[in-house]
């Protein structure tokens, strides 16, 4: 029986017991309750800490504060008097009397910061987020020493960092400052300044108070003064804006800056307006170590704002000298050099104001004193102002400037476009283009100031331009001329001024004249063909055009001496040849032009027309020694034969050799020139005519000419 009932008993044991109460379920709120308990405890501790700090004002944290801050900044930190650090009620209140923070060792003895008393309310949330916002600052007899050194360290970058960070002030909503001095020293920028700051009650009822400041200092050896105010409106308490007024004077310049700041020390996004005026715009840029051309007196206005590391000047309008200027520019405080970018436009540029771009003094130009005197009294016109190489080390630049019209008597220039790119002392003027008498001059000029003296590469091209229009643009009668000309200058030079660079230049200058026409009177007078000229005058055919087949005025430049290579103009009636050259060294000119007729002429001078003197004082010599010699020969014939025999000395048999226009139009050198029959020309040479009147070879003439040019300095 026992065995038979065993399964039943096992089954009964497997079933849940009857009438036994169910086990209670686990309480759902236990984790939440635990969390609440923890949170309550934390809040309680916070409240307790807040209460302790509020009651004690946190004075017991004084030595801990000194030790912790000193360890983090690697400076000596002391609080001589009262110390408070607590929540009131939510902002952190910090009060310290006799607070001092020492300078780093390299800055010498003294303190980076000291104050008789500092009382502040700091936003707790800003401490968490790192925004560093001070809602209230009271500062009494404060002293701040802001210094850079030549290695790039500064006094406000704490820790053991080898390079300094830019100064970033905390956002200050309201402030009451009395007797505070700020010292700023930057040996790299050559700036030293002292600024005094104090708060006064404003008379204007719009403002509760005004923080005024004034100071003085030196910038690159030049003294300046400044004064201004931060006018704090009542709305500042609720996050309003501050109104800034600043007036600065120095380096013959006055600058007024006004507008609004988001906060008393918040420049980012400021809405400011600048009014700058002075005697020379270059003075202002020189303070920042930026080299720009000199100007006459100027006045410029623009909007000013700051974005990150950039100072942006927009809506620029004003004048310099007798020229206008508009556009925008940006100064970026980047490393290792300041970056200047600009997009500028001028409607009318006075030629006097354009002079400084190649080295002329604007005041001297306005007075008509561009011609100087070298040793020996010879006149010079090429500018000798030195390029400021040291300043080019301080900044890079990208500038685009357009000029619509140039105001200049007898100088038909307009539509200038200048692109300037400066990268670590490598200055490129590309493009440098302008319109001239319905033609276009395009230029690419590179100045490599990484080398000393400066190495300059000149590439200048003149597109085909009507000669008549060009002459008219310079105030000369067009004279019935219909021909065109084009030109190219390809040279390199070494020197730190325009004069020095050209004085050591090498390269080639070529002016090419394709087919065209001149008035007869110009052609005949060029060869002193008096007989034909008188004949045409009585026949009223002086305006009869003479065809130009082709022409080339070429010079090869060697060490600043330009020698004719060749000068050859082939016309319908004659062939004009030239010899000689000019010197960039002493600016002297020694050129001679002669024209050989292709047709018989009874009375032709057949002697060169000389051009001598200097760039600043050229001379034209029509009655040359050759003409006098011919006249003497004629006089001798008249004495031994008859008066009519004197005419024989002036007869031109008309044996001039026509030119092959191919090499002429290609701008080829004298050695490549050919006659119309394909034979090498024997009447042109480098620097002289091959058949010189002296009977000497071309090489001898060139040596004599070079000696002459080098003899005057």
Secondary-structure blueprint of this entry?
Elements: H1 2-14, H2 30-56, H3 62-73, E1 77-79, E2 83-87, E3 92-102, E4 111-122, H4 124-129, E5 133-147, E6 171-172, E7 175-178, E8 180-186, E9 191-200, E10 207-219, E11 222-233, E12 242-250, E13 253-261, E14 271-278, H5 281-287, E15 298-307, E16 310-320, E17 323-332, E18 338-350, H6 351-354, H7 362-366, E19 372-373, E20 379-380, H8 389-392, E21 395-407, E22 413-423, E23 426-436, E24 439-448, E25 455-466, H9 467-473, E26 484-494, H10 498-503, E27 506-513, E28 516-519, H11 520-526, H12 530-538, E29 545-558, E30 561-571, E31 574-583, E32 589-597, E33 609-614, E34 617-621, H13 625-640, H14 661-665, H15 698-710
Parallel strand pairs: 5-6, 5-7, 5-8, 18-21
Antiparallel strand pairs: 1-3, 2-3, 3-4, 4-5, 8-9, 9-10, 10-11, 11-12, 12-13, 13-14, 14-15, 15-16, 16-17, 17-18, 19-20, 21-22, 22-23, 23-24, 24-25, 25-26, 26-27, 27-29, 28-29, 29-30, 30-31, 31-32, 32-33, 33-34
Helix pairs in contact: 11-12
Structural write-up:
- The structure is a single chain.
- With 713 residues, the chain is of the alpha+beta class.
- The chain folds into three domains: 205 residues, no CATH class; 199 residues, no CATH class; 175 residues, no CATH class.
- It is built from 15 helices and 34 strands.
- It has a 32-stranded mixed sheet that branches. Strands 19-20 form a two-stranded antiparallel sheet.
- The chain is elongated.
- The termini are far apart.
- The C terminus is likely disordered.
